[in-house]
Amino acid sequence: MKPFNYLANAVRAPEIVAILVRWGFEDLLLQLDTPQFLLKNLVRKKVTHLTPYERMRNACEELGPIFVKFGQILSTRPDRLPEPLVMELKKLRNDVEAQPFEKIRPVALKALECEIEEIFADFDERPIAAGSLGQVYRAKLLSTGEEVAVKIQRAEIQKRISADMEIIGWFARQVHARIEELRPYNLPSLVREAEKRLAEELDYRTEADNAEIFLALNTQEPNVYAPRVYRDFSSRLVLVTEWVEGSAPDQITLKPEEARRIARMGGESIFHQIVGTGFFHADPHPGNMLITKDHRICFIDWGQAGQITLEMRYHLADLFAAITSRDADKVIRVAEQMSVDNRRIDRRRLEKEITFLLNKHRRFGPSGTKIGTVGLEMLYLFGSNGIEVSPDYALLSKSLLCVEESARILDPGFDIQEVAQPYLTKLNKERWSIGSIQRQALYPMLNVLRDLQRIPNNLQRILQRVEDEELQLNFHHTGTENLEETFNSSMNRLTVGIIIGSLLIGSSLVITTGVKPLLWGYPAIGIVGFLVSGLLGLYIVISTLRKHH
């Protein structure tokens, strides 16, 4: 993340601060190193009827599409953020104002490398959907006459993301450095991860890859599919897929028996993706699912996809069994196996918190708690107690929660446990088969023997480096997150000070020479030098007084 630049964000920064104050976050801003001129003359309208998490969601929606997308990405990290906040951020949708096609056209021409009319026989310039990163149009291919959906990236979105993420990064660093109770969330790290995810979603080739992987791995499910991608016309900025005529689950009317069948079909598909193939749609909310006229399900928008290994699937089955049997000790044992590090944890404290969670959610299914909600809360308990798990588990929990919500729109009696049980039973049978046991027991033993053989050579190599005085110890310093920003700011001020001094000295020398052209009887170059140095000096004085009150 780049250091914060007030001049570059002179328009956007006051706008963001004003919105945060309007939604009741003034106290938070006062704890940060927020310049006082940004906090003056703002309307202090306190919002008291909403929770802090609801106010945060509303603030993201008002702050614009980049903050909405940032909130959506944060909603996939329930291991780092509280479950109520994750649930609020999950409500964020990409329903934003569309850009005129005059602005989008240059992006399309650049990506297609030709005129639109050379590829599409018919192109409707009215977008059928407008997201925070791109807009979708309906068109017809010139070569085959097939109807397609054309997703085009919004104009100047890279510049907008860079500006907003710079401001978000500044707030995250300030919060992490100054507010101790929020430090465990490690917001700067979350912002860096979000920037990486944004960069991936801005490349539509990733979305195309995900859709094609799903189609390749799910050939035995003809009633559940993803739109076919037209690779010849797709690129980083444009994605062309087949046009799918259908309705979202919350916008279709079906007979009860048909609605139950489709709901179950969607649930079975998600568990086949997770348990069977390990590759799954990470955000199957109603807006990303279409039910076609022949009652098939099409998953669209493959910008977010998760992938788990076979061992991770075994851990998932164990965790599912431990949660449904309310065995807190087994939950902890499975969590330690899921962990990506071996940090020491307070088992007694974690067991108490997990036991409370399981007692709070005593019933699952249609009349009880959604299993996805329990998964989100469980991951947060793991993360807050030092058990760091793969982010794909968070995507998995979100996927389960989304499919539960989508399925219950069609069938209020949908029970995801009933749907999951056959897949988990099949997974356990495969896990304890002779071939699987051989892979899990015999091969690791052979690897251990090979590692033992390497020990003498490794030890000799270490001793040789010690003897040759080539051994190095690397230290990582913590608590210096703001050092680079402070150093850059100091060097900038020092540079400007040197320039001012040089201008003053040079102008003083020139002003006595009488060099033409003259202004008020004095050399114009010298007067201009004095004016520039005076303005620069005034800027430094004002900015210093504002920053340090």
Key traits:
549 residues, four-stranded mixed sheet, Transferase(Phosphotransferase), domain 1, 9% strand, 20 helices, single chain, alpha+beta, five-stranded antiparallel sheet
Name the quaternary structure.
single chain
CATH topology of the domain at 101-154 and 203-299: Transferase(Phosphotransferase), domain 1
Amino-to-carboxy terminus distance: 26 Å
* CATH architecture annotation name of the domain at 101-154 and 203-299: Orthogonal Bundle
Structural summary, described in words:
The radius of gyration is 29 Å and the shape is globular. Among the domains are: 12-94 and 161-195, no CATH class; 101-154 and 203-299, Transferase(Phosphotransferase), domain 1; 487-547. Strands 1, 2, 3, 4 and 6 form a five-stranded antiparallel sheet that branches. The protein is built from 20 helices and 13 strands. With 549 residues, the protein is an alpha+beta fold. The protein starts with 11 loop residues before the first helix and ends with a helix. Helix 4 crosses helix 5, helix 4 runs parallel beside helix 6 and helix 11 (256-277) packs antiparallel against helix 16 (391-410). A hairpin with a 2-residue loop joins strand 12 (518-519) and strand 13. The longest helix has 34 residues, at 434-467. The protein has helices at 12-22, 26-31, 36-39, 52-63, 65-74, 83-89, 101-112, 157-178, 187-201, 204-217, 256-277, 310-324, 328-338, 347-360, 371-384, 391-410, 416-431, 434-467, 483-511, 524-547; strands at residues 120-123, 129-130, 134-141, 147-153, 224-225, 238-242, 246-247, 279-281, 289-292, 297-299, 305-307, 518-519, 522-523. The mean pLDDT is 83.
